[in-house]
């Protein structure tokens, strides 16, 4: 119930800020323009009033944004909040220009608006630090790593100097101890001397002295307490109990911290839902949108032809503006207790983007249809995925390709001699997807020897041109003699750098670029030798040289849902865990979207310690235990995977696939030379 009340409180705060903002906008931008104000004082009073009211809205929106956990609502609040902050700064600038002072006194305005000076305090938005917390932590860790790597130790001094320093420190310590000892002896002797000089007193006199001191102490204590109570009663002092945070205040702080934590969780869920909603819209509603748009375009063409006697040209694409809609004002959120994102709003937002995307696709399709095909040819019945989205391969597909290109040829001499010769293979994918593991798997499955010719591994070894030639000669000679052999080149992009970074020039990562291709030509069908390269940053390499050297390029994507489900189950069992009904593998596989196999191995090993395994009988493993370790790892974002897909599309095989997809339309369009409009549309 507290969460509901808390969420309702900030919803009310946001609603009140919107109402006040609407009133301010109506006053600032009335339907009938106001007459210019000639009195500078009156004009400044008006500006100052606007300024104070905008500050109040600013404070309300900042509080609402800081504590709202709804991801979509936070975006709307953030947009308004940033606009209000900008308007406050504009008003401040105008006030300075009109009053010619950086300081303004608005006591009368505060009194008229029934505010306190505290209400004029400009709050520093908490999201300035909170939303950059991760960046700041990363920066601190980076500096810590740099400082740890720096050699800050000074050279040790001479032994005689060190001995002298130790002697001085030890003698000083002994001197301090002796001085303290002598001071205590002097104090004791002085105390004894005074006691001998004093006359002996009776027991009654001693008791009276003790009573006098005690009663005076107690009376002073009582008087002080009565004085404090009187000051508190008169309102001139604060109750000491109020100076400590109450339990309610402590609970409030904890609730605010928890709500900020929930903000991150809900934001992650929202980002994940966007991708699933876009995919659902494309798969479910995309084909229907496409057919509807095609029917509309065809109907428009027919109507124009009937009216004008000829088909019209396609109109230019225009970007339409969208008005700001306050979707939350009258929205019913009674059932949204947890303040999670709303899928319908995502669909409403993304449906427009999908419609624009599909309309462009349908327009291109109809251009080809109208200019090339006469009659009933269309793309009816084809889905959006089949026509436009190239699905990423699963891990099973990758495993099969590696087995076909590497394991089977290396494992059988006959197969290697008769099958198409694969000399080189490049594994491309984000860090942690298992590229190096596949290299070792090839060696494990075929019993092949592994030679590491990675740029970092050969740096500084066999220097000079003759040394390099000797190294390659020895490696390939041994590889042929002890075949099957796998020659691994980690970070393969370094050998084909477009421009070698300054920090890597000493390593000379391109030293193998000229000699290795020459030796590659000497590999024949009877040589069971395979060169396997791995890279997670192919963009930094020269594409032409890289593709010329590696005749097989395999793109390894992030694991999909099914692969993650199987991997979680196998990894947990392999590391001594137990998969029970308390462990929701389906949810675990869902929330781990974007994380690679390496991340999963790291998380499982960090959780399944010996102590945790011993606790299984009393405390079974649950999916919630994996959330925190996963949150500390940066996943592979969709943008990185899209960049790899775009790079792969530029490879020879990727170009061929694109050309094949467009080949039919291109051939048919080029064969039609009599339609001038068709050519223009094709260029468009």
TrEMBL record:
<dbReference type="Pfam" id="PF00612">
    <property type="entry name" value="IQ"/>
</dbReference>
<dbReference type="InterPro" id="IPR003959">
    <property type="entry name" value="ATPase_AAA_core"/>
</dbReference>
<feature type="region of interest" description="Disordered">
    <location>
        <begin position="660"/>
        <end position="684"/>
    </location>
</feature>
<feature type="domain" description="AAA+ ATPase">
    <location>
        <begin position="421"/>
        <end position="560"/>
    </location>
</feature>
<keyword id="KW-0067">ATP-binding</keyword>
<protein>
    <submittedName>
        <fullName>Zgc:153738</fullName>
    </submittedName>
</protein>
<dbReference type="InterPro" id="IPR003593">
    <property type="entry name" value="AAA+_ATPase"/>
</dbReference>
<keyword id="KW-0547">Nucleotide-binding</keyword>
<dbReference type="GO" id="GO:0016887">
    <property type="term" value="F:ATP hydrolysis activity"/>
</dbReference>
<dbReference type="InterPro" id="IPR052267">
    <property type="entry name" value="N-DRC_Component"/>
</dbReference>
<dbReference type="Pfam" id="PF00004">
    <property type="entry name" value="AAA"/>
</dbReference>
<dbReference type="InterPro" id="IPR000048">
    <property type="entry name" value="IQ_motif_EF-hand-BS"/>
</dbReference>
<feature type="compositionally biased region" description="Basic and acidic residues">
    <location>
        <begin position="662"/>
        <end position="671"/>
    </location>
</feature>
<dbReference type="InterPro" id="IPR027417">
    <property type="entry name" value="P-loop_NTPase"/>
</dbReference>
<dbReference type="GO" id="GO:0005524">
    <property type="term" value="F:ATP binding"/>
</dbReference>
């Amino acid at each position: 119930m507290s969460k509901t009340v808390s969420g309702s409180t900030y919803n009310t705060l946001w609603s009140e800020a919107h109402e006040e903002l609407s009133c301010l906008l109506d006053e600032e931008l009335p339907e009938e323009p106001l007459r210019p104000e000639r009195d500078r004082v009156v004009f400044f009073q008006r500006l100052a009033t606007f300024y104070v009211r905008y500050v109040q809205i600013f404070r309300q929106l900042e509080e609402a944004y800081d504590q709202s956990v709804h991801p979509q609502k936070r975006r709307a609040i953030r947009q308004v909040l940033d606009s209000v902050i900008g308007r406050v700064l504009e008003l401040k600038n105008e006030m300075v220009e009109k009053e010619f002072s950086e300081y303004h006194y608005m006591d009368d305005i505060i009194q008229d608006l029934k505010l306190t000076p505290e209400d004029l305090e400009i709050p520093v938005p908490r999201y300035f630090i909170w939303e950059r917390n991760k960046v700041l932590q990363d920066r601190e860790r980076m500096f810590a790593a740099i400082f740890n790597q720096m050699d800050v130790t000074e050279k040790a001094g001479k032994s005689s100097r060190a001995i002298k320093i130790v002697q001085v420190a030890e003698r000083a310590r002994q001197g301090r101890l002796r001085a303290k000892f002598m001071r205590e002896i002097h104090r004791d002797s002085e105390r004894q001397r005074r006691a001998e000089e004093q006359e002996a007193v009776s027991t009654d006199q001693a008791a009276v002295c003790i009573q006098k001191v005690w009663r005076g102490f107690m009376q002073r204590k009582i008087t002080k307490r009565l004085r404090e109570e009187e000051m508190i009663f008169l309102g001139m002092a604060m109750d000491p109990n109020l100076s400590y945070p109450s339990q309610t205040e402590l609970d409030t702080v904890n609730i605010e911290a928890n709500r900020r934590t929930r903000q991150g969780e809900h934001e992650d869920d929202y980002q994940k839902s966007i991708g699933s909603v876009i995919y659902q819209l494309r798969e479910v509603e995309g084909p229907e949108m496409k057919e509807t748009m095609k029917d509309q375009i065809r109907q428009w063409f027919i109507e124009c032809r009937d009216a004008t006697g000829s088909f019209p040209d396609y109109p230019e694409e225009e970007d339409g503006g969208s008005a700001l809609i306050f979707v939350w004002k009258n929205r019913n959120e009674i059932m949204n207790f947890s303040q999670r994102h709303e899928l319908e709003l995502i669909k409403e937002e993304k449906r427009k983007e999908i419609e624009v995307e599909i309309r462009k696709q349908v327009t291109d399709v109809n251009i080809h249809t109208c200019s090339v095909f006469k009659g009933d040819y269309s793309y009816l019945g084809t889905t959006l995925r089949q026509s436009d989205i190239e699905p990423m391969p699963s891990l099973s597909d990758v495993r099969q390709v590696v087995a076909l290109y590497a394991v089977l040829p290396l494992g059988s001499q006959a197969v290697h001699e008769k099958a198409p010769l694969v000399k080189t293979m490049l594994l491309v994918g984000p860090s942690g997807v298992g590229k190096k593991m596949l290299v070792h798997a090839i060696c494990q499955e075929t019993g092949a020897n592994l030679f590491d010719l990675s740029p970092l591994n050969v740096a500084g070894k066999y220097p000079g041109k003759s040394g390099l030639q000797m190294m390659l000669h020895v490696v390939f000679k041994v590889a042929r003699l002890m075949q099957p052999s796998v020659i691994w080149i980690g970070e393969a992009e370094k050998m084909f750098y477009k421009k070698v970074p300054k920090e890597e020039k000493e390593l000379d990562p391109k030293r193998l670029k000229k000699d290795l291709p020459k030796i590659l030509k000497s590999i024949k069908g009877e040589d069971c030798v395979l060169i396997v390269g791995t890279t997670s940053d192919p963009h930094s390499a020269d594409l032409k040289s890289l593709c010329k050297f590696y005749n097989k390029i395999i793109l390894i994507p992030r694991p999909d849902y099914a692969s993650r489900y199987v991997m979680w189950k196998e990894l947990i069992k392999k590391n001594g865990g137990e998969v029970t009904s308390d462990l929701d593998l389906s949810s675990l596989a869902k929330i781990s979207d974007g994380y690679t196999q390496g991340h999963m191995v790291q998380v499982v090993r960090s959780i399944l310690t010996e102590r945790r395994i011993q606790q299984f009988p009393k405390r079974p493993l649950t999916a919630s235990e994996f959330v925190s370790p996963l949150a500390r790892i940066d996943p592979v974002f969709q943008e990185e995977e899209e960049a790899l897909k775009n790079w792969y599309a530029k490879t020879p095989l990727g170009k061929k696939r694109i050309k094949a997809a467009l080949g039919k339309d291109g051939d048919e369009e080029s064969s039609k030379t009599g339609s001038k409009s068709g050519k223009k549309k094709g260029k468009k």
